[in-house]
Amino acid sequence: MNRKRLSVIVLHTAENTRTSKLIANCLRLDPAEVIFVTPKPDQAREEWKSDPRVQVIEQPFRLFMGWTVGAKRATGNTLLFIPTDDEWDQAALQRFLMPILYQQADAVLAKEDHRRNAGRKLLVQAWGQLLNGLTGSMQLQTASLYLAPFALTKEAVQRIGEAHLANPAAFHYKLCNSGLSVVSQMIDLGRAKPYSPRLYGCLHTELSAYEKELIGDHLAVIGHLPPRGAFSDGGRKRAWINRLERNPAALSFSFQQGRSFVRRELYQGKRLSVIIPACNEAATIQQVIGEAAQIEPAEIIVVANGSTDQTAALARQAGASTLELSVPLGVDCGRALGAKYATGELLLFVDADFAIPASDLYPFALALSQGIDLALNDTNYYPPAHIAKTTSLAARYALNALIGRTDLGVSSMLTVPFGLNKNALEAIGWPRLICPPLAQTALSLAGCAISHAHRVEIDRLNRFRPEKHLTVDTLSLAAEQIVGDHMEAFQYFYKKQEVYGILEH
Question: Which residue positions does the secretion signal occupy (predicted)?
């Protein structure tokens, strides 16, 4: 390779016995220079220093700041960035660089084989998938600047700005929106990377220093995007909900009290309210109510909004109370309205378009009665590879990591059934329920007890709607709304962090 073309920037990210071999392999690429950025220049080997192409630059440790330092020093018109995570043989690096050296791309990002997805690596891939979804770069899948190596033309670096390399998420976002050609290359070490306790060490319920940096970088990008990242809101009647919150008497709707259900003190003296939003669900509503009635609720509330069939009448026949509105409130708003008027201390939320057996509903109510504030459906039955390459699931995983609950995986208030303690709801306000990821974030920040209660695989039960779920090469309408909901939650967290410094990195 022409040494006038290539500058290699090696960032010291971990103590590693393979660093010497990495530097040697980089030199075999015949670069103009190898720039080694390290907080410990005294540890640079003499054999590196003796090669005039090797520059050792001291940089006090702050993860990724070294990319900026190295890029500013580089003289080549192609820049290859490598951390000291592995030795990376010459042949692998040559293959990786081919698109950029043959002028087929301005940037080459790495993506890893999903089948080798293990442990906390999933967080890196989830954020990569999410960021590429935000920029409309779905073809890049999980590729990101956090999966090294990556390569950029000097022109691309100068157009975006070297300073942005200190936040790889910000550079990535600007790069994908710049009009430059960005491609991804599969990488596969075939072996485990060296482990750095300083970077990756933490308890299972905590975030490592690396993860805090990663999340903080992405949060800084999302926090400055338009509200919801400009994604669809799913037609929610937010103004209607806001008016109701300010003045409950200002809006009128029909309420009819249902019958009293048999109760045997299953819940330590607490009352259970089951809330079912519904729109044109006459075919299933009575079966849904029938299952819910078996777990001895104090009341079942059906919020019939925008129905033109007999949903409300059939619900009343089955003994449910009904809140009836002529207009559809939009997704999740019916849950919020039902929660506002529920009288029970324990709230259980189900959908009206499919019946969940009573045996699968009861654990959620039981968990609430035993002190859990938010009882979630455990939806961690997806393979990690599916999570990594599905933007809506990647968003769920990223949000749970943000609130320090990687143990929740992709479980979310987006998925029924879930249970909520009325006191916890009052701590965040019932209108928050119109955006489930935001509600989950607010509950976490309020210190509420959040836990899995049971696993119900609702993918087998949920109704498939082609107009919402089908798409080609873009996010579906349903995925757009889900991603937008998570953007709303991320931005809420970002504002809280600005005030309280929640996420230190």
Answer: none
For 225, the token pair is 């995007």
**How far is 339 from 335, CA to CA, in rounded Å?**
6
CB of 345 within 8 A of CB of 366? no
66 and 83 Cβ atoms separated by less than 8 Å: no
Q: Alpha-carbon distance 496 to 221, whole Å?
A: 15
- What is the CB-side half-sphere exposure of residue 153 using CA atoms within 13 A? 18
Cα-Cα-Cα-Cα dihedral sign, residues 97, 103, 108, 113: negative
300 or 90, which is more confident? 300
Is CATH 3.40.309.10 the right assignment for the domain spanning 253-379+415-463? no
For the chain, domain boundaries: 6-199, 253-379+415-463
Q: What is the DSSP letter of 414?
A: T
Q: In the β-sheet with 182-187, what is the strand arrangement from edge to edge?
A: 54-58, 33-38, 6-11, 78-83, 150-153, 107-112, 182-187
- List pLDDT tens digits, range 40-52: 776 666 666 678 9
- CA diameter of the chain: 88
CB 67 within 8 A of CB 149: no
Residue at 303: amino acid letter: V
**HSE, side-chain direction, 13 A CA sphere, residue 190:** 4
HEC secondary structure over 249-302:
HHCCCEEECCCCCCCCCCCCCCCEEEEEEECCCCCCHHHHHHHHHCCCCCEEEE
At 310-355, the pLDDT tens digits run 999 999 999 999 999 999 999 999 999 999 999 999 999 999 999 9
Residues 438 and 489 sit within 8 Å (Cβ to Cβ): yes
Phi, psi of 370 (to 5 degrees): -95, 10
Q: Picking from 193-197, 364-368, 393-397, 431-435, which range would have the lowest pLDDT averaged per residue?
A: 193-197
Rg from Cα positions in the chain: 26
| Residue 24, C-beta contacts closer than 8 angstroms, at least 6 positions apart | none
What whole-number distance in Å separates Cα of residue 19 and Cα of residue 196?
Answer: 14
463: DSSP letter: P
Are the C-beta atoms of residues 400 and 132 closer than 8 Å to each other? no
Contact 494, 222 (CB under 8 A): yes
Strands of the 450-454 sheet, one edge to the other:
254-256, 321-325, 299-305, 272-278, 346-349, 418-421, 374-377, 450-454
CATH annotation of 6-199: 3.90.550.10
State how far the alpha carbon of 459 is from the alpha carbons of 160, 214, 351, 464, in Å: 42, 31, 13, 9
